[in-house]
Design goal:
Nucleotidyltransferase, domain 5, pantothenate kinase activity, 39% helix, cytoplasm, transferase, 23% strand, alpha/beta, 258 residues, nucleotide-binding, 5-stranded mixed beta sheet, 2 domains, 10 strands
Length: 258
């Protein structure tokens, strides 16, 4: 068994795999203020909840877009499961041909998404990951990573609006029952979901037009299932795509853990 973890700016998603099988997954709020021991206790509690013995964990692989969390996560995993820890980055094989101008600029989470997307859905492929930011990745017909787009996430945009517009209330981040909101709260909720989805669909359409392909689209992350249910442009919802990509990468690098 092994652990994979995706450390985002808002949420950290953790999974335990045995080969191709995902045995358990959970989310924690990304909190730079917690100590190694606090996270270690949380890890042991979650593993006990799913009846996963820590002594059977052979290694861990992490992708992180929060540099402040890297050392903390490394210490948590090394001390509390006592197994080697690696991060997606230099020295870790992904099998992905990245054609970005500077491949080192591609976020580790986007790399994991691309690895899983290519393996599970083929190419050409557009991956839309709903998180603190909404990221778009495009893989061409040969499965090469060409690049993509990044826009503010749905929750981030709503928080910024509530902070900067003093007369607009902060509302629950959920879909409005109708696009034409009949109150300020409904209007904000409509803009939150349907405005964000419209922007996502616009970028998908432009990527398809620019690439000259009718690329398959897979949604990942927190809003994946909702977005796929509302959009005719999104073919698949795979909320845990990043964890699956990390597991593919873990398997490619199994020699590091022996």
């Amino acid at each position: 068994m092994n652990i994979v973890a995706d450390a985002g700016n808002t949420v950290m998603t953790v999974g335990v795999f045995e080969g191709e099988d995902l045995l358990a997954s959970w989310e924690w709020k990304t909190d730079r203020g917690r100590t190694v021991d606090e996270y270690g206790l949380m890890l042991h509690q979650m593993m006990a909840l799913y009846s996963i013995p820590s002594e059977e964990i052979e290694g861990s692989l992490v992708c992180s877009v929060v540099p402040d969390m890297d050392t903390l996560l490394e210490q948590v995993l090394e001390q509390y499961v006592q197994a080697p820890v690696y991060f997606v980055g230099p020295g870790v094989k992904t099998g992905l041909n990245i054609l970005y101008e500077n491949p080192r600029e591609v976020g580790a989470d986007r790399i994991a998404n691309a690895v899983a997307g290519k393996a599970l859905y083929g190419s050409p492929l557009i991956i839309v990951d709903f998180g603190t930011a909404i990221t778009f990745c495009y893989l061409d017909e040969a499965g090469r990573y060409l690049g993509g787009a990044i826009m503010p996430g749905l929750d981030l945009a709503m928080e910024a609006l509530a902070e900067k517009a003093s007369r607009l209330p902060k509302v629950r981040a959920e879909a409005s029952p109708r696009v034409i909101g009949r109150s300020t709260a409904e209007a904000l909720q409509s803009g939150y979901r349907y405005g964000g989805l419209g922007a996502v669909e616009g970028i998908i359409s432009r990527i398809r037009r620019e690439s000259g392909t009718n690329a398959t689209v897979v949604a990942a992350g927190t809003a994946a299932e909702w977005a796929a249910s509302e959009s005719r442009l999104i073919d698949h919802a795979d909320p845990l795509l990043t964890l699956k990509g990390l597991q593919f990468i873990y398997e490619k690098n199994s020699g590091l853990y022996r």
